[in-house]
Amino acid sequence: MTTTDWLYENFDPAGSAIGYRVTRKLDEVQSPFQKIEIYESTDWGNVMLIDGAMMVTTRDNFLYHEMMSHPALFTHPDPKQVVIIGGGDCGTLREVLRHSGVEHAVQCDIDEQVTRMAEKYFPELCESNNDPRAEILFDDGIAWMKNAAPGSLDIVIVDSTDPVGPAEGLFNRSFFESCFRALKDDGILVQQSESPLVLLELIQAMRAEMGKAGFDSFQTLPFPQPCYPTGWWSCTLARKGGRGFEFREADAAAKTFETQYYSADIHKAAQVLPPFVAKALDAD
Ligand code: SAM
């Protein structure tokens, strides 16, 4: 590879691609579940791909990790017990543990190799892995959630790969039923929900499956994410019992930890959906 090499992920559904100028391949491992590759880029730091799909870059992962965690943690009245399904790069775990009220955060990724690669090439994402409140497991999140004690969790964050391969079962009714059972009455489920620009049908289908599982309030929050297809991504929150998504705005504005993207104002702004998204999701 020369310094002029470009690394692309082609995204067929949109007929587009994401590309980085890379200087060398740093590592590659074929785990029992997927192929993990790490490249060094000229402008985006290190880049992790799983089965050819961009997962994390040093430069822009904060957008995703902060939006997957803080909106839910500042919406729940007092989150103490948090579970992350997937999330093996440990960036979401780090953000969750910034909340001092969190007593226990489990990260359950199916693939230990993702975490080992993150420790080596994205050490800043793993800086909270030794926090005594963190429990890092390597197991299938579908099975883990099935066996979780009913009514034991405040927040479940599904930080998964796309709905193919081992992550396919993290997007359907049966998995969401397990989440519904494991969550307390005021609990919140968060799922990464792909691109609102080209995968709106997937978001609609996901919300429908969550609804069949018993959830009755949904909130999709879009945010920029240059390393994912179309550069525009989203997470979807779900709750039970008719509870809405009013967030602890004063607490978010007075938070004692630093963030790079998330703020109380960004949280508020993210709740305003563009008309074409609101129409498709039947939301205001
Ligand atoms: N943010 C990325 C995105 O949206 O493209 C995904 C991050 S990556 C850390 C997602 C993780 O989900 C991977 O490490 C993968 O091993 C994990 N994963 C996929 N299927 C899983 C399952 N059934 N149980 C637990 N983890 C799973």
Broad CATH class of the largest domain:
Alpha Beta
- The global form is globular
Termini Cα gap? 49 Å
- Summed over residues and divided by their number, the pLDDT gives a mean of 96
Q: Note poorly predicted spans.
A: none
Main β-sheet, spatial strand arrangement: 8-7-6-9-10-12-11
β content, as a range?
25-35%
Please identify, by name, the CATH architecture of the largest domain.
3-Layer(aba) Sandwich
**Helix and strand succession?**
EEEEEHEHEHEHEHEHEEHHH
SS-based class: alpha/beta
What is the CATH T-level topology of the largest domain? Rossmann fold
CATH superfamily of the largest domain: Vaccinia Virus protein VP39
**Rounded radius of gyration (Å):** 18 Å
Q: Tell me the helix content.
A: 25-40%
Q: Count up the domains.
A: 2
Q: Assembly type of the shown chains?
A: single chain
Largest sheet: 7 strands, mixed
InterPro entries: PABS, PABS_CS, SAM-dependent_MTases_sf, Spermi_synthase, Spermidine_synt_N, Spermidine_synt_N_sf
Keywords: Polyamine biosynthesis, Spermidine biosynthesis, Transferase
Function: Catalyzes the irreversible transfer of a propylamine group from the amino donor S-adenosylmethioninamine (decarboxy-AdoMet) to putrescine (1,4-diaminobutane) to yield spermidine.
EC number: 2.5.1.16
